[in-house]
Design goal:
By secondary structure, this protein is mostly beta strands. Helix content is about 0%, strand content about 45%. The protein is built from no helices and 10 strands. The strands form 2 sheets. The chain has a 6-stranded mixed beta sheet with strand order 2-10-9-4-5-6, with no helix packed on it. The protein has a 4-stranded antiparallel beta sheet with strand order 1-3-8-7, with no helix packed on it.
Length: about 120
């Protein structure tokens, strides 16, 4: 059974950085577009960034220039480097395929940006 496990969240001050990681069991990452999503309190889950199997990336306007998505197919991992964090980036962050598959939603990792 394929699982996606997110890690790397935490509390950070505005302007700080965090690096999130998503580890996948199985070979699901090898040929799929993967995405990082987030859900802030009281809001719907939204796509933050996605990356194709070939490495092409797309970002939400709200994070463009601050976040970088990357992948390592050999290690079956997808990462999200987040710089210049803002309080509005506070959310639970998830990885999943893009488009997402409901069966692959994990627990996510909480990112809190606060002074």
């Amino acid at each position: 059974q394929v699982r996606l496990v997110e890690s790397g969240g935490g509390l950070v001050q505005p302007g700080g950085s965090l690096r999130l990681s998503c580890a996948a069991s199985g070979s699901i990452l090898l040929s799929r577009t993967m995405g990082w999503y987030r859900q802030a309190p009281g809001k719907q889950r939204e796509l933050v960034a996605r990356i194709t199997s070939a490495g092409s990336t797309t970002y939400a306007d709200s994070v463009k220039g601050r976040f970088t998505i990357s992948r390592d197919n050999a290690k079956s991992t997808v990462s999200l480097q987040m710089n210049s964090l803002k309080p509005e980036d506070t959310a639970v962050y998830y990885c999943n395929l893009w488009p997402s598959w409901s069966v692959y939603w994990g627990q996510g990792t909480l990112v809190t940006v606060s002074s």
